[in-house]
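Chain A, query sequence.
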Amino acid sequence: MKKLIFMALLAVGLPVVAQTYAPLKGMNDETLFRTITRELSDDSFGGRKPLTPYEAPTLDYIANRFKEVGLEPAAGGSYLQKVPLLEVRTHVKNNEVVVSGNRGTVRMRYWDDVVIWTLRAEEKLKVDEADFVFVGFGIRAPEYGWDDYAGVDVKGKVVVMLVNDPGFYDDNLFRGKNMTYYGRWTYKFEEAGKQGAAAALIIHDTEPASYGWSVVQNSRATSSLTLYSQEENKKLIPFQGWITGASAQKLFDAAGVSLEESVAAAKKKGFKSFPLGLRTTIESVNDVSFGESANVAAVLPGTSLKDEYIIYTAHWDHLGIGQPVAGDSIYNGASDNATGVAALVMMGRRFNELSERPKRSILFLAVTAEESGLLGSEYYAKNPLFPLDKTVICLNIDSFGDNMRTSDVILSAAGQSETDRYVIDAAAAQGRNVVFSNYDPAGGYYRSDHFPFAKVGVPVALAKGGSNYLDPQAAQAHRAKYYGASTYHQPSDEYHEWWNVSGSLEDIYLYYAIGLRLANDGYFPKWYDGKGHK
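Chain A, predicted structure.
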């Protein structure tokens, strides 16, 4: 089925062919940045989803651009670190999930009411006559005195839960508006699986999720990806998914339970999870395939400290070809994250053109499958090309697109490590001040490729231009002229010549300065807790 779909796409004018691109030599930084962003987000790359016919041209393009600016292959003589992936396209029986309760039956249509999938390598999967349990936020966090699974058995059952964590609603709980990892959907599915649940459904709510229902849909529009391990994939929860708020209301009505009162209770410490008196059978046929994606890895060898490494990361993937929006089905991912790859190439050239080579080596890593759960960076963190204890810092670049210059730099997750001072000094050299921020209600810290490095103890720095524009009137006029609805995970995330990238370039130079300093000063920044930020 999958091959036929892509053959049809090719037939309507989206050829996957080798192309010739303009040489980068002689381009200034802005022209280079714009050129690579424009080329990599072109329709000819088909939205850059891993394990599609568009992956090979994407990898080839990035490797050739790395080579062109003088970077060497980092993966045993190759630019490609192979990453084993499992791809599953889930077909739910009758395209719906039917739930029976004491006060009626609810039919949730796939896509409109529920988005559900599996990451197990099973062609057929069935959860038979499973009971529902409302488990609040689905969190077990002993350090916060919180356990939504205490005293309730969810083995073989369907757990329904809220998005984010309790701190979103009460500043006295968890870390307030600074989301913890417990608020991420990845954690919720992981924990539900550990508890033996048969399925986990998160109730979507735009504000605490930080994105609309269409983002949930588009993220699963074609297939789902995960790292492949024959044993580990068997341990994953059979089904995971999201339901709309309207669907949740119908479910609770069918159970004869107040959704409003249940949600209010779940936000308070001491909440006790409870069965809903609902039951369902979920059955699917799954297109299962295995494949190798790749991280594109290039290195600039150092001199006297060449066995120590600075790592710059950016994900190369996006969502591919999916559900059409206003007649456009290609999710080009220009800002997210062709710009990040462009930044890697730009910085690679700058480092290579230095009159004196840095003491430490610098690894430029364009990782795969970020949109599927940071899979490429997770794979590298578990299978590093170079020792993690010799890795000084990870500097990750994600969505540096149409941004004008600012006088401030927002330092996220501030106060976690000694990398803060490197950001402060680099910003000061640009004449910018640093604003410490631990306000992260969307959980951005856990949503990009620095996080797998932080989990294994590699220091990171997360900094970006703020909102104090050098020319606020021009910035306001620019946004009023060009912006309407969000382009996040939409086909409208396309490159435009009207982009003003002056701020993005300044942020890239900030990262360049941090890496250059650490590449020569011989110091290993430390986490203040000695472990790494989780």
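Residues 1-17 have pLDDT under 50 and may be disordered. The chain is about 30% helix and 25% strand.
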